[in-house]
Amino acid sequence: MQGKTPSNPTVCLKTSLGDITLALFADKAPITVENFISYVESGFFNDTIFHRVINNFMIQGGGFTADMTQKPTQAPIKNEAAADLSNVYGTIAMARTGVVDSATAQFFINVKDNLFLDHKDDTPQGFGYAVFGKVIAGMDVVDKIRQVETGTKDMHDDLPAEAVIIDSIELIN
Question: By C-alpha distance, which of 30, 10, 29 is closest to 20?
Answer without folding.
Answer: 10
